[in-house]
Amino acid sequence: MLASLNVGYSLENAIKETKKDLDILYNGQTAIQREFTYMIRQIFVQIPTEQILEEWADRVKQEDLQNFVNVFVTAKRSGGDLLSIIRDSIGQIRDKIEVEREIETLIAAKKYEFKVMSAIPFGIIGYMKISFPEFMEILYGNVLGVGVMSICLMIYAGAYYFGQRIVNIEI
Length: 171
Hints:
This protein is an all-alpha fold. It is about 85% helix and about 0% strand. This is Type II secretion system protein GspF domain-containing protein.
């Protein structure tokens, strides 16, 4: 859309050109293609472009799009420089997406680390059972050992629960 506006197209024609570009980029009927087809139909029946964009933002319910449309509509109504506003909005959205990707990468590493650390106690117990069966008999062969190991299992379950809550962070 920015490229079409840079060339000198009106907003209505820029939306039409954007739809043509989307048809080249995406195969089939994706959600964005359907939305732009619907917007073009609204343009043909002379609905104001600001209203079309606001309705689009309401239908999609994506924060970045709603912010972009709000800024865009305000700038258009007040006579601001649409091209620089679009350029700035695109830059901010791009920066936000980049930061989200970096955070997701860090969280993915911590989730993997959590899974590995969660499996280690079972690996240690399995190793001890194979290598030192007499030691494990002391831990699991009497009431005191079973009680202590049951308490350890509850502590492990609590730590696992809190670990799951920590690594399942919404961005």
